[in-house]
Design brief:
The protein contains eight helices and six strands, in the order H-H-E-H-H-E-H-E-E-E-H-E-H-H. With about 220 residues, it is α/β, with parallel strands linked by helices. A six-stranded mixed sheet has the order 2-4-3-6-1-5.
């Protein structure tokens, strides 16, 4: 437990999280972890209500806020998600989409966005989208392509992104265009020995390996 009340346990990571986990189970797990570690309350800190470290950091409220501003007046509610596996039979080879973190949208949306310039409206580039599930989980991604033959109420996501969002084929999501700041610095902290084992097994240096691994991400939000 860190200042501000942030809790770090395996159950709350993308690897340890189970969609079926309840709030009660999470709290029980946290309570047991505190008991097992012999944790104690630092009264000197807990009584300082005005301490800025005790304020809820912005990232903890990201599920209930519009943290990133809307761009291009583009919001689509209730789009049905399809995986590359589900859409492959009628859209062809989607292997390039599967190894990215990008989103495929219906071809009709291209005119709505790229036609803004012809209508005298500002087009904010690059096109970045926020995908939000009905349970509030979010991710941000770039556009893969506007696809002919994809129904207007549908979008495509890589299977691994859907797993990160804990959704399955034909789940409903909200997709909106957002304005993200250009990244200037990234600090990476390994969470387990598996990182070092992967580096060793690859035979590469850490820098090039991280650059290659991060290249498929459109955004680090």
């Amino acid at each position: 437990v860190t200042f501000g009340g942030k809790v770090c346990i395996h159950m709350l990571t993308s690897v340890g999280w189970e969609p079926a986990s309840s709030a009660s189970a999470v709290l029980t797990e946290i309570r047991q972890a505190l008991l097992d570690s012999g944790a104690e309350v630092d009264m000197a800190v807990s009584m300082k209500r005005t301490n800025p470290y005790l304020d809820s950091p912005p990232e903890l409220t990201r599920l209930r806020t519009e943290r990133f501003p809307l761009a291009n007046s583009f919001v689509k509610e209730g789009l049905t998600v399809l995986s590359t596996r589900e859409a492959g039979p009628f859209l062809g080879d989607l292997s390039k989409l599967e190894v990215s973190d990008k989103i495929g949208l219906p071809f009709e949306f291209a005119e709505e966005l790229y036609g803004r310039a012809a209508r005298g409206e500002t087009l904010e580039l690059p096109l970045m989208f926020e995908v939000k599930t009905q349970l509030g989980r979010k991710t941000h991604c770039a556009i893969y392509d506007f696809l002919q033959g994809l129904p207007q109420d549908t979008c495509l996501l890589p299977t691994w992104v859907m797993e990160e969002l804990s959704i399955k084929d034909r789940a409903r999501v909200r997709v909106r265009s957002v304005a993200l700041s250009l990244i200037t610095f990234v600090k990476v902290q390994p969470h387990s020995m598996e990182f070092y084992e992967a580096v060793r097994d690859s035979g590469q240096e850490v820098g090039p390996l991280l650059t290659q691994s991060l290249a498929r991400f459109s955004a680090l939000t």
